[in-house]
Structures are given as C-alpha cells and as structure tokens.
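Recap for those who missed Tuesday's class. We walked through two folding examples back to back. For each one, the amino acid string is listed first and its predicted structure tokens come directly after. Nothing is annotated here on purpose, so try labeling regions yourself before you check the end of the notes.
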Amino acid sequence: MISLNELSLVLAGHEPALIDRSDGDNRAAVAMIIDSSGSQSDPKIIFIERAQDPKDPWSGHMALPGGRCETSSESVIDAARRETREEIGLYLPRDSLLGRLDDLQGRHAGRSQGLVISCLVFGVDKKAAFTPNHEVADIVQVPFSVLLDKGNRTTIEYPVLGSGRYPAVHFVPDDSRVIWGLTYRFLRQLVGLFGYCLPES
C-alpha cells in the first residue's frame, strides 16, 4: 500500500505541471487530505459529498474540500486551507503540505470554464473531529486499498455531458455514490506517481 512517508517523499520530488493564471476569480484550489491516524500503511483520503443545491451542477457529487481563490493575491495553498476549515472544520497547518499535483482546467458540460484548479496534498496523523458547514452533506474517509481495488471500478453516465460513460470508483458496498470527474482525475494523478493505473477519464 501507499504510506504517508512514501507520499511525502514522492511528492517532494514531483514537479507538477502548473497553468499560469494570475486572475484570482479564475483560480480555485482543492485539498486532498491524507489521514494516517488509523493506519500508517493504508491511510485514507478525506472526501466530501456536496450538499444538494439546485444552482450547483455538481450538487450531491463526491469531491475534495475546496473552492475559488477569494482574491488574486490569495495563494492556492491558502485557499485550499481556508476552504477546508470553512467546509469541514479541519485546520491544516502549512507544514502539513506534502506537495502538489498538476493543475487541471475546470469543465462544465464538457466545455472549459476558464477556471484553473490546483490540488494541494496534505497529510494529517491525528484523528479529526469534523464540523461540516451547509455546503457539505457528508464526509467520507476512504482507504487507499479500497480506491485501488479493481473490484470497485465502475463507469457512470452523466447526461449533462452527453451519452458517454465515465470511469469512477465505488467506495462503499451497495452505495450509489462514486468518485468521478475532476476528483477522479486528481486521484488518478496521485496513484499514478506510485505506479498504479486507474482508467483514463
């Protein structure tokens, strides 16, 4: 399995591909939080289920804590830390940052939104007490062993994007919720650094 120590070493040596965009209104950041408090050899990733909102096209989907940078001067690291504290009540010290993945372009209905999304990877080793806000319906911690289990792979349809099917990962038996889309693409990046391959989105 992937340990927190291995994650720290590999991410420290990873040079992410970044997309230059200085406009804070068009940049967002998410936090991929690796929790090793239960197991050093099989840590968990913290995901959120977005609350139901008729104005949100991704309402009810699984995601990582995060959101837009509030100003052009706010760094993506600070935005990810601030959004994590606002959404799930978890404070991430700056020294808990393990590294960063490649930036991705935000999409809606298959089209670019002109939004650059950065993924910051953090490590925590103490059991956290979460306090989700109104944007979060649920918080789920999923071990790497579950995310990498080929038996949990699936595909989904999302009519907003057309008639195609998209790769996804189940994380709870008999649960219709899946990890897919942008969150899946960041997850695929991370496990790819360790030689694991998830189907391409």
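Example two. Treat it independently of the first, because the proteins are unrelated.
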Amino acid sequence: MFTGIISHTGKVSDVQKMDGGKRLTIECEFAGDTHIDESIAVNGVCLTVVSFDQHSFSVQSVDETLRKTSLGTLEAGSVVNLERSLTLNKAIEGHIVQGHVDTTGVIKKIQQKGADLLLTIQFSEEFRDYVVGRGSIAIDGISLTVARNEGNEFMVAIIPYTWDYTNLITKKEGDPVNLEFDIFGKYIIQYLKNREKDNG
C-alpha cells in the first residue's frame, strides 16, 4: 500500500527481456537500503525487488503488466517515480494507493496557468464513472486531485514543486501515463453494479 506522495525519482539503467516479461534495473539514492521482496511503486505500479546493490535495484514485470501499464515503454534513461511502501508510522498525506494500475491515459494538453501547470488527460470511455470532480486519482503514482472532468477527459493542476521533483518534468503531450482510480470509488461502483444485477 502507498500514499501517492513521491519522495524520490530514479533512472532506468537497464532493460532486459526475460521469458514472459522484462527485468528493469533502476538507479536511485535509496537502493542500498532496499531488501529482496520489498514492494516499490514504479510509476504507480507495485513491483517486487529481486536484487539490489548500493546504486540500483532490479524488479521484474510480466507481459500482462507491461501491456496494461506504461512500463512497456520504459527504456534505459527513462525517469520514473518511486515510492516505498506505507509503514504504520508514516502519515497518509496523499490518498490510499494500491499500486494496481487500472488503465493508461494520454496527456492531451499541458498548459501554464500562473505558477501551476494544467494537465488534460484522455482515457478510455469505459472508466468515466471512476473519475469524479475534486476526487483523488493517481497519475504515474502521484496522488492528485481532479480539477475538472468531462466525458473521457479530466484535468489536474500541478504545483511547481511536484512538476520539478517527479517524472512529470520529462513529460510531453502525447505521452502515456498510468492511472489508478480511487479505491473507495471503485468499491462503491462495483457494489452498485452488483445490486443492479441482483435487482434486474
């Protein structure tokens, strides 16, 4: 479990194909403090550390995850958002993020508004019920608030600090991003769908 508060970014140093997926090696400042089997969110995707040294750690991603997220587009040199698992003595400063990406979206527009940047994200129509104005959403693992939504697009406002200290600073229009919708909203929608089926 995570909070969507990105305290570190890392750089992909190596991508190796393996049977049924890929192995990613990521350089970051806390690599030497990790351990085997630790869960780390990489661009919002919960992955497991399989090896590490003082400078980098490696994770494996299966083909299914590569297809459903933007991890399949990563290459050596890509900057990624990193978040270590939530601990019981850590404040939940964002929102509850599982690291289970629901779908990917595409950055359609990046606009400057005062000091903030406004990102417009387009996503698949089938997920429109999961996006709520002023609701929480994780974009590449970053906990953000939906400022505006219409149809299969929504907008978020990014403060300068978040822009500068996450992988958003590397993004451009047309780039894919991982989306995880609010877990409580997903449970409510599933409950209502089940009730509708039972009453149908």
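Answers for example two:
Residues 139 and 161 are 16 Å apart (CA to CA).
The chain has a mean pLDDT of 95.
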